[in-house]
Write a structure and sequence with these properties.
This is ABC transporter ATP-binding protein. The chain is α/β, with parallel strands linked by helices. It has eleven helices and 14 strands. Helices cover 34% and strands 30% of the residues. It has a six-stranded mixed sheet with strand order 6-7-8-3-9-10, with helices on both faces. The protein has a four-stranded antiparallel sheet with strand order 2-1-4-5. Helix 3 runs parallel beside helix 5.
Length: 294
């Protein structure tokens, strides 16, 4: 079953701003990362899915329902965290969560209490006194307390410290085990790598890539950094390896072939040190799609 179906969706704001002829879908149980530069169209796409914007062309559907025409029904089945949370500053966190729960006709508050405890914040603090990170935690409680089958998250860890970012990753992983479908916009590649099955990349309002994350991981090269005894050896070795960079006695390069071939090349040199690691997801994207598409 397709939880999300977007076909040729277009909203042109002029000046090359908006989204243009974008198409993608999400199956039930998929966790998909939505990445791209600021202004690329991530938030505009998510707002179409929530029914806040009417498209000029194409269609957006959630569980077979039209996102604009049937927005009120769709929102009963979707948890949502906007990129910028609009809150009632005079309320405390708990009052605001209750207010949203009443709007969504949520009667069981157990999930909300579990999330408040998990995210480790005091909901009785007035929202106007909360830090950005605390407000983000309130938004996360609201997005997940509905226990909806589909969750849309726009920059979900904005303002969270590294420890809480890791707790968020663990929350996403546990939600996937429960069969949830999640579309998550994020700038944090490590976060995407730890949580997602697929990656959608948008640039200049158009889908630039739709990649299976596991396949990308299998196709990664290794990044090598080798230090030689002298500059002459380093230069001689660098001449044998494509796209090898040398700084003094040290060389760096990507290698995807048989490591034994590399070791045979090295055995005739005096090597002082060698480090190797797999490319990060961010490095793979820069390599494939250019630095401006980061």
């Amino acid at each position: 079953m397709k939880m999300i179906e977007v076909e040729h969706l277009t909203k042109d704001y002029g000046n090359k701003k908006g989204i243009f002829d974008i198409s993608f879908s999400l199956k039930k149980g998929e966790i998909v990362g939505f990445i791209g530069p600021n202004g690329a169209g991530k938030t505009t796409t998510i707002r179409h899915l929530m029914g806040f914007i009417k498209q000029q062309q194409g269609s957006a559907k959630i569980m077979g329902m039209d996102c604009f025409q049937e927005a009120s029904e769709i929102q009963k089945h979707v948890g949502y965290l906007p990129g910028e949370i609009s809150v009632m500053e005079h309320m405390n966190g708990y009052e605001f969560i209750q207010f949203i729960a009443e709007m969504k006709q949520i009667k069981d508050f157990q999930r909300a209490h579990e999330l408040i405890e998990y995210l480790e914040f005091d909901p009785k603090v007035k929202i106007r006194k909360m830090s950005k990170g605390m407000k983000q935690k309130v938004g996360l409680v609201i997005a997940f307390m509905q226990d909806a089958p589909l969750i849309l998250l726009d920059e979900p860890t904005s303002g969270l410290d590294p420890l809480m970012q890791q707790k968020f990753v663990e929350l996403i992983q546990s939600e996937q085990k429960r069969g949830k479908t999640i579309l998550m916009s994020s700038h944090i590649f490590e976060e995407i790598e730890q949580t997602c099955d697929r990656i959608l990349m948008i640039k200049d309002g158009r889908i630039a890539a739709d990649e299976d994350l596991n396949k990308m991981k299998l196709n990664r090269s290794k990044h090598y950094e080798i230090t030689f005894a002298n500059k002459e050896d380093a230069q001689q070795f660098a001449n044998r390896i494509p796209a090898c960079k040398r700084i003094s006695c040290k060389v760096t390069f990507l290698w995807k072939g048989d490591v034994n071939v590399l070791l045979k090349e090295l055995c005739t040199f005096d090597v002082k040190d060698m480090n190797a690691r797999y490319q990060t997801l961010e490095e793979v994207f820069i390599q494939y799609y250019g630095e401006d598409r980061k």
